[in-house]
Design brief:
The chain is mainly beta and 126 residues long. The protein has a single domain, classed as Beta Barrel (Thrombin, subunit H). The protein is 13% helix and 43% strand. The chain has a 6-stranded antiparallel β-barrel. The chain is globular. It starts with 25 loop residues before the first strand and ends in a 7-residue tail after the last helix.
């Protein structure tokens, strides 16, 4: 049997369409970030592992619960991003956050990042 080749590098993975329940595109990534829980003022470190226009998944050493309000900060394409949201689900160290009222300029930045992750011409970088 022939080996399957991918046009994407190993840092990005495509979700199987049969298993995809989301209507909005998402991309896997490895980006450092921080968040403030329930406006308490103390910043906590995290690692973003999945990003979309509807929400994101991150890992943290802090125990989080559904309903916790967060202000997330991270850099995307060298631009600082601040997003308000709420934890909707947790699984071990992974926490899934749904955005609250995302500004259109941030939606555009995330969509541009997702688009470049899937369709960027890898041959131009050589």
């Amino acid at each position: 049997m022939a080996q399957e080749k991918s046009i994407f590098n190993s840092s990005f993975s495509v979700f199987d369409q049969a298993k995809q329940k989301r209507k909005k595109a998402r991309v896997r990534l490895d980006v450092a970030g921080s968040f403030v829980l329930n406006k308490k003022g103390m910043s906590n470190q995290c690692k973003l592992i999945d990003l979309g226009t509807g929400g994101l998944t991150f890992q943290s050493n802090l125990t989080l619960y559904p309903g916790d309000a967060l202000e997330m900060q991270f850099k995307l394409k060298e631009k600082a991003v601040n997003i308000l949201g709420e934890i909707v689900r947790t699984a071990g160290k992974d926490a899934i956050m749904r955005y609250s009222d995302l500004p259109q300029e941030t939606v555009d930045l995330i969509q541009e990042y997702i688009h470049s992750a899937f369709f960027e011409d890898k041959t131009k970088k050589k």
